[in-house]
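Rather than argue in generalities, we have chosen a single entry, letters for residues, whole numbers for local backbone shapes, without further comment.
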Amino acid sequence: MYTALLLHRTNEINPNLIIPLSLIFWAFVLVKITQLILHYKAKRRLIDQGLVDQEASDFLNKKNQHDSHTSLKWGLLGICLGTALIVIQFLPFSIQSSFSYGLVAMAVGAAYLLYYIAVLAQQKNK
């Protein structure tokens, strides 16, 4: 039912959805860039006023560490999903088959498992 909205013909994206999906994507990009700029300005203001003690410094640095974990998570997820979609194209199954959905679900699970293992290994090294 929902695939009829996304797919115009077999394996072609509906052209009526390209503009709304790209606008949604760029809205998220704009919000993220705005958040980064505002966070940087607030951090600079605190440093310039001398209001940064050791506790505040640890808090600000902890946020940066969390961002690197988030980047790792989304990077692994993208790589695993992309690999699953490439594998699906070379298999004799259609993209709407249950095998294809299962392969994508397994790729998502593998990505999160790799992320968990990487974070766990990093925490053990500390």
